[in-house]
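F.,

This is the one I mentioned.
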């Protein structure tokens, strides 16, 4: 099975700030649940981890023209990687590996290293990259 790779927050930042990327080249999926409060990466789709399996086929269809899809949760230790693996597994059921590798029509799958916890430390106050950020919530660990 094809697996995901990790992407560093600074690399995702550069990709998002690169104006040459078309609107749907990069799709970001936030799989946090109740811990979604306090901000998110601008433009991210919010699909709580407990709902992902029921939305996965739609997500595969909606992202077929994207170049990259990036999953994240709070720390990207459990839900983010699990979401990426589910996406890859279900995509592989629909399309064989050879087709995925040779045609390059499917997005490369990443997980954001450190999740939103690391992202917000560097880019929480950057309104171009982060939406609905609540600095006080993060400083006082009220998001937990």
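My design for it:
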């Amino acid at each position: 099975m094809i697996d995901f790779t990790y992407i560093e927050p600074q690399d995702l930042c550069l990709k998002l700030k690169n104006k040459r990327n078309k609107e749907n080249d990069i799709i970001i999926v936030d799989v946090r649940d109740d811990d979604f409060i306090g901000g998110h990466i601008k433009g991210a789709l919010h699909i709580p981890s407990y709902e992902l399996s029921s939305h996965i086929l739609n997500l595969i269809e909606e992202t077929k023209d994207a170049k990259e899809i990036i999953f994240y949760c709070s720390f990207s230790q459990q839900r983010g990687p699990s979401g990426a693996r589910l996406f890859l597994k279900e995509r592989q059921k629909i399309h064989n590996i050879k087709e995925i590798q040779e045609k390059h029509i499917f997005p490369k799958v990443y997980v954001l290293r450190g999740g939103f916890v690391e992202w917000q430390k560097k880019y929480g106050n950057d309104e171009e990259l982060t939406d609905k950020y609540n600095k006080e919530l993060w400083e006082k660990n009220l998001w937990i």
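The beta strands are 5-7, 26-30, 40-41, 45-46, 68-72, 108-112, 130-131.

Talk soon.
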